[in-house]
């Protein structure tokens, strides 16, 4: 893997809790130096939101990953996420040559 997208559903707390498990699995398989992004999806469902910004910011700092709030339905910030992971992967490859 060259990059990791850790995606959780902002309307379901259980998916947010699973991010730590996914992060642990990545570390277990030797992917500690791989660029990663934390993504909260379904930002368009504001009334159903369970994960608030401070929670995401805290986890983002803990796992050393930038975080974004996106909507697959509307496309909000989806392109930005892929541009960012491409940038991080490229930088990682250049820095390790």
UniProtKB/TrEMBL annotation:
InterPro entries: P-loop_NTPase, Small_GTPase. This is GTP-binding protein. Coiled coil: none annotated. SMART domains: RAB (SM00175), RAS (SM00173), RHO (SM00174). Keywords: Nucleotide-binding. One of its GO terms (molecular function) is GTPase activity. It comes from marine sediment metagenome. It holds the Pfam family Ras.
């Amino acid at each position: 893997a060259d990059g990791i997208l850790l995606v959780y559903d902002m309307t379901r707390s259980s998916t947010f809790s699973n991010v730590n498990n996914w992060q642990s699995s990545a570390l277990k398989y030797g992917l500690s130096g791989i660029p990663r992004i934390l993504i909260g999806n379904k930002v368009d469902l504001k009334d159903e939101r369970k994960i608030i910004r401070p929670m995401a910011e805290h986890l983002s700092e803990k796992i050393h990953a930038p975080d974004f709030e996106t909507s697959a339905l509307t496309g909000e910030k989806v392109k930005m996420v892929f541009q960012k992971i491409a940038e991080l992967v490229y930088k990682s490859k250049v820095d390790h040559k």
